[in-house]
Amino acid sequence: MPNPAAPAIAPLSRSPRHIGIVGCSAEGAALCYRTICAEAPAWLGAHAHPEVSMHTPSLAAYVDCLDRGDLDGVAALMLDSARRLQAAGADFLICPDNTIHQAFGRVQPRSPLPWLHIADEVAAEAQRRGFRRIGITGTAWLVGSDVYPAALARQGLAWERPDDTQRATMGRLIMDELVGGVFRPDTVAFFQAVIEGFAQRGCDAVVLGCTEIPLIIGDYNAALPTLDSTRLLARAALRRAVGADGAPPVR
User: Which of 200, 201, 203 is nearest to 133 (CA)?
Assistant: First the structure.
């Protein structure tokens, strides 16, 4: 028998859209997937979540392209995943990897399905929360790119990058440790110091611009409010899937 004390959940007018995840690195993709599945019941009811499919080529294939500056190669890998996910029934796509969004302009016009853009979701959240100057963390490839400067500028926001030494160290720690699920206290301390430096330079928030950084840094241990790119993208995908805006219903 149904529990009469349980709050009613308004039924959706249609089934949730099927989310396709274009994976790159395992830890970030896994966190994104877990977030979708863990937070969907607030919209859909106990144990319910949209259908989710993921395709992930070898990370080494992406790294090889990035090392050579071959964004056409990155785009080809992303498009291959897009086509496979279309065949699996996905309605739209997300990519829980900031770095390979450098190729997004090459991907979107040729994609068989629409995408959400991770940096646009982060920038929109920064604007919504009233931030004005944002520190950018992430791989050396990402931090040196225009992925976040362009997205933040579209929202009228300023940004700061780490210096060259910090950028190189950050990239090494991400690729040698975080993407492999290695989380060391001294690595946490390094990221905390970078964020403290952003605060001293007038930033009022920081983008966690590698999808693994939220596994070691958050509002609980950072000198600035954090913009968690992984979870923000997952939540945007969940809203798109259920056809809703704003927060989930209160139950």
Answer: 203
